[in-house]
Amino acid sequence: MSSLKKGIQKFLGKVSTYEINDKNIRKAIREFELLLISNDVSLKVAKQISKKLTSKMLGKRAKRFSDLSKMIPVFAKPIILGIISPKKPLDLIEILENHRKISSQAVKKSPLVFLFLGINGTGKTTSIAKLSYLFKIRGYKVVLAASDTFRSGAQEQLKVHADRIGVKIIRGKYGSDSAAVAYDAIAHAKAKYADAVMIDTSGRMAVNQDLMEEMKKIHRVTKPDFAILVVDALAGNDATEQAIDFHKEIPLNGIILAKMDADARGGALISVTFATGGVPVLFLGTGQKYTDFESFQPKKYVDQLLK
Ligand SMILES: Nc1nc2c(ncn2[C@@H]2O[C@H](COP(=O)(O)OP(=O)(O)OP(=O)(O)O)[C@@H](O)[C@H]2O)c(=O)[nH]1
Ligand SMILES: [Mg+2]
Fold first, then answer.
1. What's the CATH number of domain 92-296, 2.40.50.140, 3.40.50.150, 3.40.50.12780, 3.40.50.300?
2. Among 182, 249, 266, 288, which residue has the fewest nearby CB atoms (within 10 Å)?
3. Could you state, in order of their start, the residue ranges of all structural domains in the chain?
């Protein structure tokens, strides 16, 4: 359980002794705001949540609530849900299924192309393996592009996953052009009527202009259907900064938040959606196994957070 969730449970236990009046409402909202901030929710979002909560709750001594622990979740849930709900929801499985249906009718369409990016060590390669596994067990044909031709061991790492999952991999030589490897993988996937291509790239900081230019080249050459940023939930507020920085350079279609299991405080999730103006969080990485991968459902998340 994230420390945000634990903190909220403790907080609700505490305010259950508060009588409902304006003074206590203000006090509780202040505590709630601090709790959010101390769990990686960015200051901007935390302030917005508490401002909205204040305007909705003040002056309401609603008889239907026995105490603040019952009242706060009712008002806070829709506010947080509004923040973490994507501008346009994205269901990859549904999209893949529709794509396959269209493809099998008349002409075979090109594969859907997924480009994964992010800073070093966030969980890109692992997330690719998890998503490929998910697609594979649903019967889709996946091709992996080992476009990380930079970090030593990256090619072999992806190959191990490809063999375990049972999908094709197109590899490149270390030091070779990563865009060319991705291009070859797409060409192979087209020829073999694959459903999806997953492009693994080397980790990079968005402030590194050269590496961002390389990423833009990969993006230009592969024209991905989905550019997916993988961020590490443990990075806290940095995860939010990364999402902003990458989104400025490459328009993101989705975000994967990896390592949610590894003692993450949990608030980064709320901040990344806000900071990117509603880019959907698609999956949460919750461990090292292929199945430790949850599709992110905003409503379910909020309901569990404010139980
Ligand atoms: N606990 C946990 N560990 C994870 C998760 N996702 C990835 N990891 C671990 O994080 C480490 C880095 O994962 P990679 O997938 O290699 O990260 P990457 O972004 O591809 O790294 P680079 O290619 O070096 O930039 C590995 O030890 C993974 O097993 C997750 O959801 N939970
Ligand atoms: Mg990698």
1. 3.40.50.300
2. 288
3. 3-84, 92-296
CB-CB neighbours of 264 under 10 Å: 26
What type of residue sits at position 164?
A: R
User: In angstroms, rounded to a whole number, what is the distance separating the alpha carbons of residues 37 and 42?
Assistant: 6
Residues 215/147, Cβ–Cβ less than 8 Å:
no
- How do residues 180-207 score in pLDDT, each as one tens digit? 999 999 999 999 999 999 999 999 999 9
Amino acid identity at 92: L
What is the CB neighbour count within 10 angstroms for residue 223? Answer: 10
Q: Which of 151, 288, 291, 295 best tests ligand 1's pocket when mutated (most atoms within 8 Å of CB)?
A: 288
44-58 residue pLDDT tens? 999 999 999 999 999
Ligand 1 pocket, CB under 6 A: 118, 120-126, 148, 151, 154, 202-203, 230, 258-259, 261-262, 285-288, 292
